[in-house]
């Protein structure tokens, strides 16, 4: 596969996102130049194959700034000044503040278009980077009044080269959207996980997949999220205020479940959650209905691979899969989601082949 991204690409910042971008582009034989203020971080990214060190004769066509949010505008401005013929983008998770700061500083906005890949991991740094980090993920491009069509097209090419799905959204609309789908969920997950600090040991011993699902992102880097939340505070606060009101209503119902209207309040809260989840796009959008089968496997090497291989041999396409372990037992619990019309036949075939279907 040949790269859509034309010319040399300079990546400033070799953390998780910057190194992942470098790995993905380097795999397509794009000439990637790496820079980082930390010599050791830069050396590690180069050793991993994300690109090479800068040379005096470098002439990047595209610069990607992948530094912490509180330094993004400063670094973008410096790169615009240092490379007067290059298109500059950044991958910070908040867009309006960067654009406003650049405009206030008199930066040449006609060569800047912000972007944001909706991808990440709980771990950070080049050691956590992956060339496929952006595969299938939205990559928001945030053009402004000075942006040219060909600049947006160049960033769309970058996103597609990395396996992402480009989408165009104004900076303000982007920031409002991520406040709901990313930033507020991070705080909710962190606050929920914090309840476990003083929980008795016997309580955490009972933890199942539901707790792991809702607290997974609570393991994220606090320093990074402090910057993100501060930059988008005005948009995150109303989301949390509405959540607080919902919690107050639920709390009132739980304090007296027999009171008139209490059961209705709880039911409405749970039903609203069902409606919200239904809006989250899946593999084929928001309308796909699937059936989930639970298969018990021995917790030993090769069992999961064998299960997936045999499902493939049955010509059944998986829509989703989730794996967890039974605490204290040598059993893996695999939930496989398939189209409803395939579920009955799959269950029969799995049982025939000796699998335990719960």
UniProtKB/TrEMBL annotation:
Residue span(s) of domain Prephenate/arogenate dehydrogenase: 7-284
Pathway assigned to this chain's UniProt record: Amino-acid biosynthesis; L-tyrosine biosynthesis; (4-hydroxyphenyl)pyruvate from prephenate (NAD(+) route): step 1/1
Top EC class, one word: oxidoreductase
PROSITE patterns for the chain: ACT, PDH_ADH
Membrane-traversing stretches: none
Gene Ontology MF terms in the entry: prephenate dehydrogenase (NAD+) activity
EC number from the UniProt entry: 1.3.1.12
Domain of life per record: Bacteria
Record's keyword terms, sorted: Amino-acid biosynthesis, Aromatic amino acid biosynthesis, NAD, Oxidoreductase, Tyrosine biosynthesis
Catalytic activity of the protein: prephenate + NAD(+) = 3-(4-hydroxyphenyl)pyruvate + CO2 + NADH
ACT domain residues: 292-358
Entries under SUPFAM superfamilies matching the protein: 6-phosphogluconate dehydrogenase C-terminal domain-like, ACT-like, NAD(P)-binding Rossmann-fold domains
Family: Belongs to the prephenate/arogenate dehydrogenase family.
Listed name of the protein: Prephenate dehydrogenase
Protein source organism: Amnibacterium endophyticum
Organism taxonomic ancestry: Bacteria, Bacillati, Actinomycetota, Actinomycetes, Micrococcales
